[in-house]
Amino acid sequence: MAKYFDVHPDNPQPRSIAQIADAVRSEALIAYPTDSCYALGCRLGSRDGMDRIRAIRRLDDRHHFTLMCRDFAQLGQFVRVDNDVFRAVKASTPGSYTFILPATREVPRKLMHPRKKTVGVRIPDHVVTQALLAELGEPLLSSTLLLPDEEEPLTQGWEIKDRLDHAVDAVVDSGDCGTEPTTVVDFSGGEAEIVRRGAGDTSRFE
């Protein structure tokens, strides 16, 4: 059964955040809120966690996982960003955007797109997620909590607990965080290519 954490959306309890971070370090797979719907998350190097996310969502090896980063400095450790892209990404973070960029050697090969050697990165604008990332000290390997054959992500912590009780190890509930996923912008070719229109404004990339 998944452990359930009821976390205050504006003032997350430090004890709960520390317990969640410890669980992640111990290979737990968690469902947690972001500024654009719930996500599944695990430790960056967790092969088991990544395989479990693939199984829950029925993903193939071409799916871009996302590294949920605390800030721009952390993001820069895992992707290569040239000057023009730097300005565009910096102006849009934190926020509801995922950027696809060339991965650095810090990213495990299994996480990269097999042909492009790219990875998704984002910096969330969400108090609870930021508190967890600060406590964890490294990115969360993440994917939107969108179940197979369903059009919208799950939005309620209790519903996630009910439906994924034996598939995840912990559910972090800090209230409804909406159903609209991030806007995905691919910069791997040098120019902005909008892959998915979501919660983030796309006008600056068009």
TrEMBL record:
One of its GO terms (molecular function) is L-threonylcarbamoyladenylate synthase. NCBIfam families: L-threonylcarbamoyladenylate synthase. It comes from Streptomyces nogalater. Pfam families: Sua5_yciO_yrdC. This is L-threonylcarbamoyladenylate synthase. Its EC number is 2.7.7.87. InterPro entries: DHBP_synth_RibB-like_a/b_dom, Sua5-like_dom, SUA5_domain. The keyword Protein biosynthesis does not apply. The lineage of its organism: Bacteria, Bacillati, Actinomycetota, Actinomycetes, Kitasatosporales. Keywords: Nucleotidyltransferase, Transferase. PROSITE patterns: YRDC (PS51163).
